[in-house]
Amino acid sequence: MCKIEGSDFDSGPSRITRIEKSRKQRWCDTCDAELAVGAPYVTVWWVSDGNNHTEVACPACWDANETFAKSHALAWISPGSFLSLLGDCVVDEDDPTDPWRPMLTEIATRLRDNVVRRNARVAEALHG
Ligand SMILES: [Zn+2]
Ligand SMILES: [Zn+2]
């Protein structure tokens, strides 16, 4: 059985906004995808311990996030916490037909590819 519990995500964040066109370049806090100028994305804003937090997600990650949160009776999940929660869920399931496994694989693969791409760009910038 999945042991994920609500804690931080039992009640809603202060604001979730779907943005149609990004006005500056950002990176998805779940999969590290580049959100280029003009690309749609979702911004999540909340306050915890008296601090403001803002994270962003690409539409693909946010759709998966919402689906996963709903089926786990969570009000929301921050983009930066989503992959680890998803990992916790799948690790707790011994069943290889776990319905969340494909979602985890898909996002983890996306993250890996995006990080490889970003590292290549950084190496190029450093070494010319
Ligand atoms: Zn993403
Ligand atoms: Zn679960």
Helices and strands in order:
Blueprint: E1 15-19, E2 26-27, E3 34-35, E4 41-48, E5 51-57, H1 59-71, H2 79-92, H3 101-127
Antiparallel strand pairs: 1-4, 2-3, 4-5
Describe this structure in words.
With 128 residues, this protein is α+β, with helices and mostly antiparallel strands. The chain has a single domain (7-127), classed as first zn-finger domain of poly(adp-ribose) polymerase-1. The chain is built from 3 helices and 5 strands, in the order βββββααα. The chain has helices at residues 59-71, 79-92, 101-127, and strands at 15-19, 26-27, 34-35, 41-48, 51-57. The strands form 2 sheets. A 3-stranded antiparallel β-sheet has the order 1-4-5. A hairpin with a 6-residue loop joins strand 2 (26-27) and strand 3 (34-35). Helix 2 packs across helix 3. The longest helix is centred in the C-terminal third of the chain and has 27 residues, at 101-127. The mean pLDDT is 91. Bound molecules: zinc ion (ZN) (2 copies). One zinc ion binds next to helix 1.
